[in-house]
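Q: Is it fine to ask for two folds in a single conversation?
A: Yes, each is treated on its own. Send the first.
Q: Here.
A: Result:
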Amino acid sequence: MSISTKGKPPTVLRPRSKTIANGPLRSVGHRNTVSYKRQITPSPPLGHRLVSHEMFHRQINRVIARRHQNCYILDYECYKPTNDRKLSTKFSGEVIRRNKHLGIHEYKFLLKAIVSSGIGEETYAPKMVFEGREASPTLEDGLLEMDEFFIDSIDKLFKRTNISPSEIDVLVVNISMMATLPSLSSRIINFYKMREDVKVYNLTGMGCSASLISINIVQSIFKSQKNVKALLVTSESLSLGWYTGNDRSMILANCLFRSGGCAVILTNKPSLKDKSMFKLKCLVRTHHGAKEESYNCCIQKEDEKGFIGFHLGKNLPKAATRAFVDNLKEIAPKILPLRELLRFAAKLLFRKIHQKWSKSGGGAARPVINFKTGIDHFCLHTGGKAVIDAIAANLSLSEYDVEPARMTLHRFGNTSASSLWYVLAYMEAKKRLKKGDKVFMISFGAGFKCNSCLWEVMRDLEGRNVWEEFIDSYPPKNLANPFLEKYGWIQDEDPDTFYVPDDYEIPD
């Protein structure tokens, strides 16, 4: 198209072609307008689209799977035997006097051990002790002890949670000192008529740390199966493990261990999250069984006269400390805030530099990690007063922090693997546990083992549990053991002339 103007030669206008990444856009001149024909970008190959689609679904499945891998505690029930099973100061003296293998030296040792144990007068013992048959227990005595616990605690737990035994998918039972055929787990299945496809784990010989081992088993199952309910049953059989000899390292167990147990229902079902009490955040297990000293410090064996008992060696504190330190090294980075870890690392580095350049060779005090920066409550194993004192010193805990463990030891004694749940119940009964709080559990057991874990409180807890009836009287003003007042005269007796008549009766 030509356009003429005066004094200027005619000019021809031609549309310019435009290009994009995929090639030119052709232009066609038509009157005073220009039209364009766009080139369509080709779609990605079908294979690429399928791969992207599959990756998207995998990511969604991972998110869904994580929701089912959480481990929640729905509820738990600690066992409180009947009042006729309480070991009073007088009756404890009668049990000791019945053992004809003991002399004045053993009496003095037991008096010292009991007075310093931290155990009170309201702990419980098996029925056969009150019938005077601790020297000749039967298998039925052991089964009766377990049945009383099973029927009482498991029944209460099912009733309170409104969960039927047929809804249980996994059953984990740990009773260290009693192995029967069929197993105790089979006994529970038979009594409650559980499903044929229930997954069963029966643990023995795990000692006082068995509860967290059982939790770890449940946690592993939850990672591979959805919408699962698990029942954990933990206790200890004293009937068949009562020692009647005079070996000091073995008779000590009679002073510390008492009857007890706990049943726990756990789940990974997301819809039950709001009803749950606790959520498992982290769990670490430490086992020093490869070390001979650790392996032999807690062991069941026969004494020189053939009496079977549980030996507690003098090297037990050393073995426990080593396992404890190794366990803390692994779990601390997982549960403490980064700022506390950096603070500790900086102080440790400063101390090393100071020691290197100091002329005197001394240095600053060894830095200590403040576990309270990531933990609100400490649920400690009630292995004895010395055990609680040692943990408190190592973690710089206050009397408020260790009060639940001390009161549990005083009221229920060392109930082996179930003792942690009595400590937790004390915190709940005192209404200490609020939503979002972190609870640190730590336990020790033969092997030698140290296991620990961290729980998150899912809601404010009301405290209706085994402590409910008498929690207002704790802590008592005086924890003094009445044994010293009643039997302190033994310390002044002459070993050469001491004699207890067969008809001697302990005064009230």
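Q: Second one now.
A: Result:
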Amino acid sequence: MDRTPTRYNTSTATSSFQTKHTKYSIQSSTESMGFKNIAIFGAGGSNIGYHVLQALVNDGNYNVTVIARAASKTTFPESVSVVKINDFNDHPQLVKALKGQDVLLSAIGFEGYAVQYQLIDAAIEAGVPRLVPSEWGFDNDDPANRDLSPILYVKTKLVEYLRSKESASFSWTALATSIWLEWALDAQFLGIDPIKHSVQYWRDGTHEFSCTTLPYSAAAALQVLQLPAEQTANKRIFVSAFEASQRQIVAELEKQQGVQYTAVPFDADKTVQEAKAKWDAEQDIPAAYTTLVAAAVLPEYKANFETVGKQPLLQGMDGVTLPKLTLEGVVREWLKAKSG
């Protein structure tokens, strides 16, 4: 089977999609689109897979298939094909499910990450020319990040496997989208509690890091799919809507909430050491996620993609049009969603 992506000559269209936080409009440049049939694994729930699915459906230029576990109770839009897998160790079943797809995009969480190895092997046999692994974070090729976080280490090993499978008919694209700020506020992931109006500053809290949102990252994924295939093959693409520090985020929350936040004493470096030790001793998942906070907010892990010059940066690539995001706007939309 020819694994070269089919090119479709269709007109440029504008699409918009609504999320619980904001509505985005993006330009769909389908004249140069290399991929039409998109399979998503990990589209349930409310995180990045859900947002990518909604963006694809609302764009209207894709044939979308969801790959789901047989036990999944999630319902999907009528326009989406759903293929349920009884056993992800059943290679022939996975190959059959992926036949005819141009892209397999994964948004699976850390706990289910290993399943992607089976999906990679099946995608190659099925003739899927492009795979997008579930990264959605940082520069996992940076040794400091790999050494810091077991989550980033696992993601690095998967990309190493993908690199070993590169060929004229199979390639991959990873997306480093840093911190989804509205999600981080919901989860109090950055040590910022918008309900109790308190904050744990990592060191002095002044280091700026790249921020995105879930719908912005979904829009970025669509932009990557619409670029010429050779422009994104076998690369990690960096995405940054803006850069902000913990202190800047707290200042914006204080301004819009009309309250003053209390700084809670906190030793960032000790917390990282303890989290790494707990992971090593117990494989503790919350400890692993603590290391991801460090990857975002501490300067040695270089999550300020624009400032340190990470390349390729999606916003600087020819043909890319993404909505304008600001810290003020993201906080405003998040608070509006909470009050509604």
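Q: Anything structural to flag on that second result?
A: Two points. The first strand starts at residue 13 and ends at 18. DSSP finds 13 helices and 15 strands in the chain.
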